[in-house]
Automatic annotation (TrEMBL):
This is Uncharacterized protein YjaZ. Pfam families: DUF2268 (PF10026). InterPro entries: DUF2268. Residues 103-287 form the DUF2268 domain.
């Protein structure tokens, strides 16, 4: 397999110093090598519009802040660290599950939008996607906490990529449940923690609610929900659901991540497996095992 971390630093630097009328075209050129990231979207996808929708850096404001932030990412060697982390993670995963399919992976690292209050606030300056086989999308604002977690973030998204690669777990939009995504987030965090420890491996979004039993019970009540348009509230929380036109359900940001970690940790404890060994674990088995353990402990 081949890992290709696109040189988006050079491209973004050019965009942020170009005349305004040239920026959209240059951005489109930068995004084109990763256009298949959006292959499941209906109709023709406007890459520039998708960039804005995903909280990518703006083309018409905040130039100085973005230029400074871009250099901070570059000075932190974000691109090199992503590539090295992915290579190490693939080696660890193959040692645990030598028969899996590991696709070629193209990685798109972008700078976030400092004027996006949701991205910079509830989103903690980070957005990422590893659900589309062969592509990873990593959107950072260089908060110190995010720079410290560059490797863990990349490895988290790789775990999703490998879980849903051919021969792995099938994500069927017609039948997939909240439970599958919650478990997948827990597995991805567990894999990142296996490599980088708890301090860096947890997705920051879920950490405040790891020990909140009320949040746990609420998310568990929705694990059987289907319809991907409903997932944002249960996994990412109400603020994200509202941002993208969904219906809130009474959950804080990162609730599904926190609960996914608890479910997966319980499952790993009972089975004695590592996160890498549990890459293709059935989400229903993970949930049932964890809930039986919790009931037994009451």
């Amino acid at each position: 397999m081949t890992i290709t971390v696109l040189d988006t630093y050079t491209a973004m630097r050019e965009i942020l110093h170009a005349p305004h009328e040239r920026r959209a075209g240059l951005l489109r050129d930068m995004l084109e090598p990763a256009a298949n990231l959006y292959r499941y979207f209906p109709g023709e996808v406007d890459l520039v519009a998708m960039h804005a929708m995903g909280s990518g850096f703006p083309l018409d404001r905040d130039e100085d802040r973005c230029r400074e932030a871009l250099e901070a990412l570059h000075d932190a060697d974000a691109w090199g660290r992503v590539e090295r982390a992915l290579e190490e993670a693939v080696a660890v995963q193959l040692a645990a599950t030598p028969g899996i399919v590991v696709p070629d992976v193209t990685v798109l690292v972008v700078l976030g939008d400092p004027g996006d209050s949701h991205f910079m606030g509830p989103g903690l300056g980070m957005a990422a996607n590893g659900s589309v086989t062969g592509y990873l999308y990593l959107n950072f604002w260089p908060y110190p906490e995010n720079l410290a977690r560059v490797e863990a973030t990349a490895v988290h998204e790789l775990n999703h990529n490998l879980r849903y690669a051919p021969g792995g777990v099938v994500w069927n939009p017609a039948t997939v449940t909240v439970g599958e995504q919650v478990v997948s987030e827990g597995l991805a965090d567990a894999f990142a923690r296996q490599l980088y420890g708890d301090e860096l491996g947890y997705a920051r979004l879920g950490v405040p609610h790891l020990h909140d039993d009320a949040v746990f019970d609420k998310v568990v009540s929705g694990l059987g929900v289907t319809g991907m348009q409903n997932f944002a509230a249960w996994v990412h929380g109400d603020a994200t659901a509202i941002r993208y036109g969904g219906t809130p359900v009474g959950l804080p940001s990162g609730a599904g991540y926190a609960v996914g970690n608890r479910l997966v940790d319980a499952y790993l404890a009972v089975t004695g497996r590592t996160a890498a060994q549990a890459l293709h674990a059935d989400s229903r088995e993970v949930i049932d095992t964890a809930l039986r353990l919790r009931e037994g402990g009451r």
